């Protein structure tokens, strides 16, 4: 299948809708049914969403089985229509400001050491939802002191005033996914701009150099290895600290097709290359997603901050 991006959607030109067969090295983790049922009950009782469920993350069984989840705020309807994403799109509802309290309560109930907060893209809001991100960071710190917070934010259309609202709340990690290489950017994310993503990551570093920055790439959409390495070098030129690299998996026949599957050796080579050019942490593998093993990454925060700034962060 090939796709033609338009202004507000991706129109499929039907050629072959049969998904590629997954290679044997891509094995989905076993699910802990009891823990997953408990977490689902907790999320439903507080009217919360997780990106694990909404985006059909392949690691939901593993992450939920270990008692972690990535909270999806600002509703479950996105204003953009990216070709890889399984989150619903359309016209979102009004902002639920009490969501900040409910997320903080859930974080405390789960007794998390590290909380990951992301959102749908809300182009209908003047601040893109930045104020709610900041509120949730504050509420988590009040309810569970010592819990570090990672926010995976949209690009806010490159607006510095919206980004500053989040940065002033001082999350431990500011994450914004580049997703793909510049050549494929408009195909994969037709309503996004590479310049907006670049501005988000660069300005975050300028606003507060002690907040770690992070980004993620998907592979298997038609990019070349040289293009991946080129964009990795660009991310490092923006002083991004942490990088995740994962295999794109087609959520349904409506989504962008998989060009190819990368081998375990290729993922290992990309990890090695990323470390050689200065990333403090590279998570690279078929099932890696932006918040995959985030709790393990944050254990290195004190070491990274000690080397960068001469002082550890709180844990």
Shape descriptor reads: globular
Number of helices: 12
Query: Major sheet: order of its strands?
Result: 3-4-7-8-9-10-11-12
Euclidean distance between termini CA atoms: 47 Å
Poorly predicted runs are 1-17
Q: Give the rounded overall mean pLDDT.
A: 83
Instruction: Write the element-wise H/E pattern from the N-terminal end onward.
Output: EEHEHHEEEHEHEHEHHEHEHEHH
SS elements, strand count: 12
Tell me what you see in this structure.
The protein has 315 residues and is an alpha/beta fold. The protein has an eight-stranded mixed sheet with strand order 3-4-7-8-9-10-11-12. It has a single domain (30-309), classed as TIM Barrel. It has helices spanning 33-45, 51-54, 60-65, 99-110, 130-143, 160-168, 185-188, 194-207, 225-237, 264-276, 294-298, 301-309, and strands spanning 2-5, 10-13, 49-50, 70-73, 77-78, 88-89, 114-119, 148-152, 173-175, 212-219, 242-247, 281-285.
């Amino acid at each position: 299948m090939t796709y033609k991006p338009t202004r507000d959607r991706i129109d499929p030109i039907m050629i072959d809708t049969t998904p590629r067969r997954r290679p044997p090295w891509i094995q989905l983790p076993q699910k802990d049914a009891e823990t997953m049922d408990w977490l689902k009950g907790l999320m439903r009782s507080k009217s919360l969403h997780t990106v694990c469920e909404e985006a059909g993350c392949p690691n939901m069984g593993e992450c939920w089985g270990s008692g972690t989840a990535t909270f999806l705020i600002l509703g479950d309807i996105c204003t953009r229509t990216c070709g890889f994403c399984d989150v619903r799109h359309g016209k979102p509802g009004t902002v639920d400001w009490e969501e900040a309290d409910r997320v903080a309560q859930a974080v405390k109930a789960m007794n998390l050491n590290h909380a990951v907060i992301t959102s749908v893209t809300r182009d209908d809001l003047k601040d893109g939802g930045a104020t709610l991100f900041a509120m949730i960071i504050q509420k988590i710190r009040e309810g569970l002191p010592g819990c570090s917070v990672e926010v995976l934010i949209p690009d806010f259309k490159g607006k510095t005033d919206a980004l500053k609202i989040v940065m002033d709340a001082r999350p431990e990690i500011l994450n914004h996914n580049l997703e793909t290489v510049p050549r494929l950017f408009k195909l994969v994310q037709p309503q996004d701009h590479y310049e907006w993503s670049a501005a988000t990551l660069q300005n975050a570093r300028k606003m507060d150099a002690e907040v770690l920055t992070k980004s993620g790439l998907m592979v298997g959409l038609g990019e070349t290895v040289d293009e991946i390495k080129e964009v990795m070098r660009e991310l490092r030129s923006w002083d991004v600290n942490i990088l995740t690299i994962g295999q794109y998996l087609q959520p349904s026949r409506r989504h962008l097709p998989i060009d190819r599957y990368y081998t375990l050796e290729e993922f290992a080579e990309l990890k090695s290359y990323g470390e050689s050019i200065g990333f403090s942490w590279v998570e690279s593998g078929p099932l890696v997603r932006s918040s995959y093993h985030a709790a393990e990454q944050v254990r290195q925060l004190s070491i990274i901050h000690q080397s960068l700034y001469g002082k550890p962060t709180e844990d």
